[in-house]
Structure formats: structure tokens, C-alpha cells
Amino acid sequence: MEYSIGEAAQKAGISASTLRYYEKEGLLPSIKRDKNGIRSFTDEDLQSLRIIECLKATEMPIKDIRKFIDLCADGDNSLQERYELFLDRKAAVQKQIAELQEVAKVIDFKCWYYQTAIEAGTEKIHAGKSKVVSA
User: Fold this and answer.
1) CATH code, 1-73
2) DSSP assigned state of 53
3) Terminal-to-terminal C-alpha distance of the chain
4) Phi and psi dihedrals of 3, rounded to 5?
5) Bridge-partner residues for 33, per DSSP?
6) Residue % of the chain over a pLDDT of 90
7) Residue 133 reports pLDDT greater than 60
8) E strand or H helix that includes residue 2
9) With CB atoms 3.0 to 4.6 Å apart as the test, which of 33, 41, 114, 115 could cross-link to 45 if both were Cys?
10) DSSP classification of residue 127
């Protein structure tokens, strides 16, 4: 099936300008255009967009995503490099998760702190207790 830029953007959950940017940056090298220059996206392009968005969510820079796209174009010759890239991304995501879990602990503490202070009508209920983060 083929999709217009608007349809592809909607299906991918991103803006049409983001799609244009990705194409300009070489992340979507297989996008076809008709004789009038109108882009046409396929289901395969949408799958590529999902991977691009996944890599972006890991805070991977666009230049490194482009390198991955180039590796894909190399076919089986780059399987090991692509595997290593995803191992690196996995480690980065695991680090992000650990960092967010620490943030969540602070937020949980502050929710408890303020809830108990509200119930007591004062922060003085916590006087002398260790505060993870003040204020």
C-alpha cells in the first residue's frame, strides 16, 4: 500500500515536516516520488520510521541513525555492526530506565512528604527528618 506524506505522518504519529527532515537527513533513502515530486510512502517505509523513532527515543543522534540506515543498505555485510549498535542502544535504555527509577523514588518521596504535610496542615510534621530534596 502507498501513502501520502500526510497519511504516513499520521500513521507514524509524527509531523509531515519531520518526515521531510528525515528524508533530507538521509534517513529515508527509499522514498519514491512521482513525476510531480510528490512523495509516496510504503508499509516498509513506515516500518523504517518506527525504527527511526525507536532509536530517537534512546537519544541516539541523527548522524548515528543515518549511519545505521547506511549499514542497513550494506545488507548482510553489516549484520555484526547493526547487532552491536542495538546492544549499545539496549545498554543506553537500561541506563535511562535506572536513572528514571531514581527520579521516580524522589518523586514518590515528595508526593508522600507533601501529602502528609497537607494532612497535618504543616510541613513541621517533617521537622528533624531527612529530606531527599528540600522544598
Assistant:
1) 1.10.1660.10
2) H
3) 55
4) -130, 145
5) 39
6) 88
7) no
8) strand 2-3
9) 41
10) T
